[in-house]
Amino acid sequence: MVFEAKLEMFRNRLEKVNRHLGKLARRKGVAAYRIYDHDLPEFPFCIERYGSHVCLAEYKRRHGMEEQYHASWLAASLQMISQVLQVPLENIHRRIRQRKLGRQGQYQKLEGEEGAGFFTVEENGLLFWVNLDDYLDTGLFLDHRDTRLLVREESKQKRVLNLFAYTGSFSVYAAAGGASLVTTVDLSNTYLDWAKRNMLSNGFEGPSYQFERADVKQWLSTIPSHSYDLIVMDPPTFSNSKKMNEVLDIQVDHVNLIRSCMRLLSENGVLFFSTNYTGFKLDTEALSSYVIKDITRATTPFDFEGRLKRVCFRIQP
Predict the structure, then answer these.
(1) Tens of pLDDT along 205-216?
(2) Neighbours of 185 (CB within 10 A)
(3) What is the reported pTM?
(4) What is the rounded average pLDDT of the residues 278-306?
(5) What contacts 197, CB < 8 A, 6 or more positions away?
(6) What is the rounded average pLDDT of the residues 53-81?
(7) What is the domain class of 2-99 according to CATH?
(8) Does domain 138-316 have CATH number 3.40.50.150?
């Protein structure tokens, strides 16, 4: 009886947030959004909708449950989630969510056999390929949806540089905003290919769209000053990839990275800098010569209000 009562409480919560957030998502033309994130301690899930599919991440923790009981608890939870969200069980992609330092694990594949693979979702009239089975991240960071809109609004006739680009969603938005040049830089061939696929799916191809596989810290020093008008930089918190010449620690390295970006900007250029490091402290003293505005709140999407775990800054010369 205790379990049934808790499950009913979970159902009520999920119905409420799904109804509210679903209405907002439809109004905004968004098919991928977060619905639930550990709202109730007895149900430690992160639930995100991607069109007709659902990504269900179970936070790894001690449930105090025996394996057999956990299995029945999970089965009942999945059945209920399927009913409330009106998504078939086979379209619910389950994974274990473990705490990692920011986005350092985004270049890793999950263990085990590959799942259903790729499909597209629509966001603000643009298409993005996602994969809910094979990688630690899905291919689209939902928390930067509003930041992407901001980039689209400011990209017309601008030379745009997307650093630590992952699957290139910022590049797609910049191209959609009428950028004259979009350069996408990442260390991973896998994700650069994914970025190219996203660009092509939206009709963006040709010499104006460049892709560079590079260690960003090293690459920045090779580019002439004032080469870009708008830069997006959303680095991992920490990386010691064998492909890199140096370790990246965003708290230690952010001043030099920002200074390098500012050198590349035109006189009236802008840098959008973001990090997921929860303990991050921007060194405003070392960066005092720049105009810095915290736009975290202004770039918080409707489905992350009150639970955003990143910061975002607009920085100008």
Answers:
(1) 999 999 999 999
(2) 24
(3) 0.91
(4) 96
(5) 129
(6) 84
(7) alpha beta
(8) yes
